[in-house]
Each structure stands twice: as C-alpha cells, then as structure tokens.
Design goal:
The chain is of the alpha/beta class. 48% of the residues lie in helices and 14% in strands. α2 crosses α11 and α5 packs parallel to α6. 53% of the residues are buried.
Length: 289
C-alpha cells in the first residue's frame, strides 16, 4: 500500500526510531526492498530517484516502484531522491510519488530557499511531502569514494531554522559528518550540532549516507530528531557480492535468472538488517537534546 503523508515520520520521531529510505535501481532492488518491508512489518521508503533514472529510465523505474508499493501489504512510500530539476519533480508528483527531495544544497542559501519553496508549492497540489537539504554532503550517491566530511560544509542550526520557516518544507536532510558511500575514514557524527538543529526546527530530520555508520552513532542520531535514514551502498554491496558468488555456477548454463534472484535476495537481507538497526536499544527512552 502507498504510504501517504508524514504521520509515519512523526511517529518514528516520537518513538525514537526511523524509517529506512532505500535506493532502488531496477526490478530486483525494488523487489528486495519490498520483501524486506513486508517481512519486517515496518513502513519503508523506496527511493527511485534522479540518479537511478539514468540507468533504468524515468518512466520504467517510476512504474516499477509505484506498482510494487501499491500491491504490497506493507506501507511503502515512493520517493524522488536528490532532484535538482523542477520538471522532474513535477513528473514524479503527477505519476503518484508520495514524496520528493529537492536538492538545492549546491546553491547559495537564498537560491536554495527559492528552489525549495517552488518544489513545496508543486508538491502541495499533489498531496505529497517534501524533503530538502541544507549543508554539503560529500561523496558520490552511486559509487563509494572514500569521502571525508568537512566541518565548514555542515548544516548550521540557525540557518536551518530560517530555511525551514521560509520554505515550509516537511523534512530536512542535514550534513553533520555523514558522507555518501563507504569510506575508509572513520565516520563520526557531530551529535552536538545535530541536537542543536533538532532544537531549532519543528520538522523531522533526515540522515543521508548511513551505510557503514557505527550503530552507536546511528542511535545517537535517532535520539536527536532523525526519523528517516537513507541507505544505498550497503544494498549495492550486498547485490554485487551475491552476483559475484553466484556467477561461476550460473555461467555454464547462462543462468541469468539465478543471478537476478541472488541479487534480489541479498538486497532483501541487507535491507532487513538495516531496518533492525533503526530501532533504538531502549524504546520509549528519553530524547536527547
């Protein structure tokens, strides 16, 4: 079933856990994510966005994700991730996406506000919610590059308050030491900064780049207002490793189906593991400030 509105995000924030946002590239990753949500019995967000469109094609991937979500017994949002194109945002909204991310983080502050306000206006006409980003998150969305976070590019709590008030955005993705993809450099979140942002804005926070993040760092973020966590690299690695292991037995018979099935099941298992990590060790514990 399609997951509409921000109630699930707000409930997650109140309970100290988070929804998983998983990037989908093709049929098998959509199927694996959907299967994980159904097995876990938890709401999940399928992120069929700008970067995967380059591989699968926008129309094809949109339809795959929306059809899977509509047919599933699990509550599944379908989300446009990291879009800088208002026409693309409009196309996804018209197709039935339940949320969109407008990414103006590369723009000057005033231009980011202007772009985000227009995305919010368009989304309201379609009953969808909007995620925006403030601060610069290093790394590549599709390839792990050993990115390193820079303090100067992190989200400023005072700017975050001004940004949310000016745009009316529903959720805010923040840069607090997180990076896209796996990295050999230890990732340590600036939890003090994150707590200050949480105190400054009235909307749920989103943490991108959570693949490989130490669980204590992750739970620290959940306790400080993060109610959606994006994971991509862990699913990519699981898919590729399953293909690598299966390939020798598949080659003699040109058995591509076994490769696809192995990749799909590996994505499901990796997604289930992530969903499990997004529950804090002590439900109902006091929120951190």
């Amino acid at each position: 079933m399609l997951l509409h509105g921000t109630d699930a995000l707000k409930e997650a924030a109140a309970a100290g856990h988070a929804l998983a946002g998983f990037v989908a590239y093709n049929l098998e990753t959509v199927q694996g994510i959907t299967a994980a949500a159904e097995e876990a019995g938890r709401p999940v967000v399928i992120q069929a966005g700008s970067s995967p469109f380059k591989h699968a094609g926008r129309e094809a991937l949109m339809r795959l994700a929306l059809d899977a979500a509509a047919r599933s017994v699990a509550p599944l949002g379908v989300h446009l991730d990291h879009s800088r194109d208002l026409d693309e945002i409009t196309a996804c909204l018209e197709a039935g996406y339940t949320s969109v991310m407008v990414d103006g983080s590369h723009l000057p502050f005033a231009e980011n506000i202007a772009l985000t306000k227009e995305a919010v206006r368009r989304a309201r006409d379609h009953g969808a919610w909007v995620e925006a980003e403030l601060g610069a998150l290093p790394g590549d969305e599709d390839v792990s590059t050993d990115a390193v976070a820079q303090a100067a590019a992190m989200t400023d709590p005072q700017q975050a308050a001004e940004f949310v008030a000016a745009t009316g955005v529903d959720t805010l993705a923040v840069a607090v030491g997180n990076v896209h993809g796996f990295t050999k450099h230890p990732v340590r979140l600036d939890l003090e900064r994150l707590a200050a942002i949480h105190q400054s804005v009235p909307v749920p926070l989103v943490l991108h780049g959570a693949s490989g993040l130490p669980v204590e760092e992750l739970h620290g973020a959940l306790a400080r207002g993060v109610s959606k966590v994006n994971v991509n690299a862990e699913l990519r690695r699981a898919y590729l490793e399953a293909v690598r292991v299966t390939l020798p037995s598949a080659l003699p018979g040109s058995d591509v189906v076994s490769l696809w099935a192995a990749g799909r099941d590996a994505v499901r298992d990796a997604a289930l593991e992530v969903i499990g990590r997004l529950s804090p060790p002590h439900r109902g514990g006091k929120r951190m400030t």
